[in-house]
């Protein structure tokens, strides 16, 4: 399985091989405490890159591509309440593998007992086994194993007011991560200059000499020239076709106008004179001379006499339609 990351509209294109992966639902179901908050997905995550500062242009290009996948964060004006998720990308230079992880960020106060946390967070404490509320705080003053083993590296000083209760401004709080998934283990295979088709800038498996690179470049340039030539020919053909269509349209409109004008004139004449107007046939001999360029034989049009078609105007009150019809009775 392969994963392609492309920057639109001109590239580059990065091709990764997927060695291992795990779906988000499988990752969340494997945890004891499943913490999935819908409000965390309303803001973009914080991206953290590890070991991408080595030698090689492919590492710098990978780092810039991963950074540009997410919106940039201005550290001077950032709101800490909007940073609820984290994306970690760690590169191993010995194996050339990239580990992708996705976490949910939770900020908890430090040096506060469980009883105080419950009261601060608005939870109702269970005082059934206590005679006084002071006993509740004194019993729960002992820290749990997870809190005792917490690394002090995770402790930070918050400079802003947090929405979560218990985190006071300018006091220490601990950052806790819970994995959301998915998990991916990737390996960079190829970097192309264009959009899925271009000069290969880096290849992990195939290494070519400079002569082979020059030959590939020449072939690519010749292909581009051929493509441009064909495109120009196609554009010229489409333009010529459109011009022919327009000319044919103009000619057909002119012919239709001539026919309609002649018919109108003939109808007017017939109505005014109320006589039969002869409409002569087309002269076949003249038509033959124009098309063939020679005089026709005498026997060719001898059978056709000089007949004339008579065009009769249709009478408004047709008397034949008013004539009664008689039927004979059959003897049964």
Automatic annotation (TrEMBL):
Q: Which InterPro entries match?
A: Brix, PPAN-like
Task: List every stretch annotated Disordered.
Answer: 219-332
For bias kind Basic and acidic residues, which ranges apply? 233-250, 258-274
Q: Where is the composition biased (Basic residues)?
A: 220-232, 322-332
Q: Where is the Brix domain?
A: 1-197
Q: Which domain of life is it from?
A: Eukaryota
Cross-referenced Pfam families, in alphabetical order? Answer: Brix
Task: Quote the protein name from its UniProt record.
Answer: Brix domain-containing protein
């Amino acid at each position: 399985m392969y994963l392609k990351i492309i920057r639109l509209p001109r590239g580059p294109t990065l091709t990764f091989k997927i060695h291992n992966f795990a779906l988000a639902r499988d990752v969340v179901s494997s945890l004891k405490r499943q913490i999935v908050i819908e409000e965390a997905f309303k803001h973009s995550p914080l991206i953290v890159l590890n070991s991408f500062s080595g030698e090689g242009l492919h590492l710098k290009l990978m780092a810039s591509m991963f950074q540009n996948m997410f919106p940039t964060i201005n550290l001077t004006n950032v709101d800490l309440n909007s940073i609820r998720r984290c994306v970690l990308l760690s590169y191993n230079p010995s194996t050339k593998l990239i580990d992708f992880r996705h976490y949910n960020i939770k900020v908890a106060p430090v040096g506060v007992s469980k009883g105080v946390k419950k009261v601060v967070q608005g939870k109702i404490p269970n005082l059934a086994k206590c005679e006084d509320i002071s006993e509740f705080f004194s019993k729960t003053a002992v820290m749990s194993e997870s809190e005792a083993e917490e690394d002090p590296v995770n402790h930070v000083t918050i400079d802003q007011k947090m929405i979560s209760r218990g985190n006071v401004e300018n006091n220490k709080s601990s950052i806790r991560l819970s994995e959301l998934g998915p998990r991916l283990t990737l390996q960079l295979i190829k970097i192309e200059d264009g959009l899925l088709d271009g000069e290969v800038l880096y290849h992990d498996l195939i290494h070519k000499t400079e002569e082979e690179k020059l030959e590939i470049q020449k072939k690519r340039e010749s292909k581009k020239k051929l493509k441009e030539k064909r495109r120009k020919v196609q554009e010229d053909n489409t333009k010529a076709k459109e011009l022919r269509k327009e000319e044919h349209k103009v000619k057909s409109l002119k012919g239709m106008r001539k026919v309609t004008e002649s018919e109108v004139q003939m109808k007017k004449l017939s109505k005014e004179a109320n006589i039969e107007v002869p409409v002569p046939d087309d002269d076949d001999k003249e038509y033959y001379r124009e098309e063939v360029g020679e005089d026709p034989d005498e026997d060719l049009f001898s059978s056709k006499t000089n007949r004339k078609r008579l065009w009769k105007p249709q009478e408004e009150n047709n008397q034949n339609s008013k004539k009664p019809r008689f039927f004979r009775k059959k003897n049964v």
